[in-house]
Design a protein that fits this description.
Largest sheet: none
Order of helices and strands: HHHHHHHHHHHHHHH
Oligomer: single chain
Strand content: under 5%
Distance between the termini: 54 Å
Helix content: over 70%
Number of helices: 15
Length: 249
Amino acid sequence: MEYDWEFGERITCSEDEKRQCMAFVAQIVSMANKAKRNGLLSLVQEAEETTKFLLRKGLQLVLEGVQPHLVKTTLEYYILSGRYTGKDLLERCIIMEGVLAIQNGVNPQIIQELLLSLFGEKGHETYEEEFGDKKKDRLKVFFNKIKMDRAETPLSSKLGQTIMQLDDQSIQKCLKEVSTVDLARALKGIEGKAQIKVFENLPKRSAAILQETVEHLDLMRESEMDEAQEKVLLIISGLEEQDDLLAAN
């Protein structure tokens, strides 16, 4: 599919039709979360029960282990041969891009952002009003859940204490140097207050992604946690050697 100016005209539809299509975004994001938690095979029921041909076909191809580029080509041919416009085209593009992103293991929050971009800038606000998951409330619940957590290991305790000694600006500098996965693994075992301090120094969207990643690390090995915590401590140590960090007041 070529997303050019011509495509932009073909996909144009009314605000009411866009709202109807946004329900598919919410459905795709829900499936992405399910696949992330339980694996792609957990989507068998969705593939069998959906009344949408393209969604059923896309999920079937993914579940059969067809290579992503062949899934993409197949779905594109189905769309292009139908010469769809307006709501019909928008709906099918959402399905195609969503299925491909799920197959490739893209983070559900990123999938949501990708699909909402098909609606233009105003679409994001509309989606949050009608289908948003109240990320701020979710973070509050998460904070209440972890605030009394204690460090699981001596290394976890060391990292937590180190974080608590840094000011907000220093924490933000450190966060720029560590990947989301490593950060999530490192946070999993440290005390709750230190975890919360890290989350509060992230932009809202980044905090939501990190929260989701942390919550899906139940099967993480302790060795993975230790390795991630050592990485973060090395990053902090390196910045301290550059006199680039400040202690909290």
